[in-house]
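FORM 7B: Structural annotation worksheet

SECTION A. Query
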Amino acid sequence: MGFVKVVKNKAYFKRYRMKFRRQEDETDYCARKCLGIQDKKKYNTPKYTMIVCVTSRNIICQNASAHYRRDMIVYTIYAHELPNYGMKVVLTNHTAAYCTGLLLGHWLLNRFGMEKTYKGQVEVTDNEYNVESIDGQPDAFTCYLDVDLARPTTGNKASEILKGAVDGGLRIIYSTKQFPGYDSESKYDQFLKHYTTWLRILC
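SECTION B. Predicted structure
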């Protein structure tokens, strides 16, 4: 029997290094691919995702659309921009997370010229709010939440950003089970009471 050379031996796999973000586990590529897949009937129609990243000193909220070569960032909002709008609080708490999502919703609608059609939550109430499309008008701006590697547990700040974006006029499918203070009996009432209190203090 002749000599057979093993190309991919143990030494090869020891020295093999994956791409940086995949190696450091900074991005869930399987979830990112599922969020970016678009129906074949809607070829080249952008599918928007709201990417949320909460760090120890800042909150980053981006809106991106998947393209063939790369993701295109439509708009980005940082929590350190909130003092420019008169909000002087800690930039990483739940209030700042909600206001960051609210600011992103308003800026996105303003960029696409939909701020007059979909104004979002105008009055502060204790009721759940969802954006619905209006007949004879363009459909509501729809996007999907992408929390990346963060665990969407109850009370996570990503749910605060989600609630702010929905009140800002964006149409996002969500469940109230992830809101802070959720209980099987009280549902989301406790969260909405805290949320209305924050808004009344800010206003």
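SECTION C. Observations
The chain has a mean pLDDT of 79. The beta strands are 48-54, 59-66, 71-78, 143-146.

SECTION D. Sign-off
Analyst initials: ____
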